[in-house]
Design brief:
The chain is an alpha/beta fold. Helices cover 35% and strands 22% of the residues.
């Protein structure tokens, strides 16, 4: 698909998800019921219940890690969350930056921005804001953030090189990123790669781990560390929507793997 087609798919799918609760997302897809033919958007997610600042209204179960867990966020920091959704990671980050800090959520889906702003208003936060914008061209000045976080979003961006260059630009010298994302080891079946629905579900948009790290280095990042890596197994109910039985068996023995990672990297002083 062309880049703009991909973005249209993502906007449409996540616009629909914004209208649902986490429970609705969990119970409407194969991971929970085994009866539908669409991607389970909550299949990669982790539980936030024990995190300070957690707000259930903002948790749609769309992440693939907890990037704030390794983000080394300090009181007074400015944090940018890319693909902020309903605001889940922003509100956790706000608990870490405190009253003196600032949190900016960026998302390209208007219904998500609307939902996040409603959640922030309910919490009476004056130092959390949500902006509509594209990660490839952020409406944010350079050298703004001490920390950039993102949760299962960069895999959805068509031009990942441009995205990482933009992250580098908006970070202050000496700042760093902490992103949870989906990557591949081995080749994904071409039917999965070509399926728009699988792209929006964070699978076919994922790239090889080595390539992912190389893009970050080429953007200027140093001291790369993978703090967490977890294999993800897609249920047969999902895969059989795109593959026949024989293709599914071949995929399982191909050695290809889907992984969620949490990557830390620094912008040099």
């Amino acid at each position: 698909m062309k880049a703009e087609d991909i973005k249209s798919v993502v906007r449409e799918k996540y616009g629909e998800i914004a209208k649902q609760s986490k429970l609705q997302n969990e119970t409407s897809c194969c991971g929970a019921t085994g009866c539908c033919s669409t991607v389970d958007y909550t299949i990669f997610s982790e539980r936030y219940d024990a995190m300070a600042g957690y707000n259930p209204d903002a948790d749609l179960g769309l992440g693939c890690g907890i990037p704030t867990e390794f983000a080394q966020i300090k009181q007074g920091d400015t944090v940018i969350d890319l693909g902020s959704g309903a605001g889940n990671d922003c509100f956790v980050a706000r608990a870490l930056v405190g009253e003196a800090g600032r949190v900016i959520g960026l998302d390209m889906t208007q219904p998500m921005i609307d939902k996040a702003r409603i959640n922030a208003e309910k919490l009476n936060f004056s130092n959390v804001e949500f902006l509509l914008g594209d990660i490839e061209e952020m409406p944010i000045p350079g050298d703004t953030a001490d920390v950039v976080i993102s949760n299962c979003v960069l895999n959805l961006v068509p031009d990942k090189q441009k995205a990482f260059r933009e992250i580098f630009r908006v970070l202050k010298p000496g700042g760093h990123l902490s992103v949870s994302d989906v990557v591949l080891k081995g080749e994904l079946h071409n039917k999965l790669q070509e399926a728009a629905e699988m792209y929006a579900g964070c699978v076919s948009g994922a790239i090889q781990l080595d390539q992912y790290l190389e893009i970050a280095r080429n953007a200027g990042f140093t001291n790369l560390k993978i703090h967490k890596e977890k294999a993800v197994t897609l249920p047969d109910e999902i895969l059989l929507s795109y593959l026949n039985e024989e293709e599914l068996d071949q995929f399982k023995i191909s050695g290809a793997g889907i992984f969620s990672i949490t990557l830390y990297a620094e912008k040099p002083l």
